[in-house]
Design brief:
twelve-stranded mixed beta sheet; 49% strand; Immunoglobulin-like; 1 helix; elongated; 6% helix; mainly beta
Amino acid sequence: MKRISILFLLLASIIACRKITPPPPPVLIPKRIEISPDNQAVTIGESVSFTAKMYDNLGNLAMPQPVFVWSVSDNTVAEINPEGVVLAKKIGQINIKAQYQNIQATALLNVIENPNQIALIRINPEMPELTIHQTLNLTAMAFNGQNQALEGKNFTWQSDQPEIMAVNSMGVLTAKKAGTALITASAEGIQSSIVMAAVVKKGNFVGKTGHQAGGTAKLKIVNNNLQLIFENNFSACCGPDFRVYLSNQFQDRDISGGYELAILQKGSGSQTYQVPNTIGIDQYRYAIIWCKKFNVLIGVAELN
């Protein structure tokens, strides 16, 4: 009888150790449309095709794809058919729009006459990312209709949110507070594609309660949605039922006041977690790895 009782206790213990608490519901984000190409140049009389893709509330490619409604901002410069094929009619720079219900996206079309004039302007880097008070020197380059670089052009720089990310006349960005700003460079009446510059909050994980954790975490706005991103150097070891939280405080065995985002996707390597749009980028101070099963703190990254 004693042996049976011991076996029963061992079996109950094994079952308990394997039990995982239910995962939080998935975070839903706004649907979006992406257009390709996002910036195209053609000469008068030429045609060019644009394509669009819809992404669902989980950030995945929607299946099946909807039928988009295409339009142009000025049909005297170019006209577009229901399949997204544009015919250039006269010199100018216009927006191409793809729309499904109340969701839309735009791309740029530059119609040129002289193959040596500016057809495209590209900004480098294409996705600048800074922490608060950091600076970065952007560069712009103009290209003609044959995709040849045009030297000696003077660019005018602009930020739509200078209180978040300022840009001076030389293209130097200065990060002022967390968020995003749209940066453009223009010359001779031609504007570049919009570059989204992100001011992120970032920190490195430190292991807690005898556990190992390391690597970089950051909060960043991507496609107008806030994401918590663990970079490739991330690791957290080892145990069951690890969860990802955002919080303003932590204790070894207390996560009250924290917001549970998701089950940890994997113990190491890059991974991304969607954050509900009800949460602002400055709302929480820490990213936390928490063992929910045993209420134990695994690792903390302070986001600055």
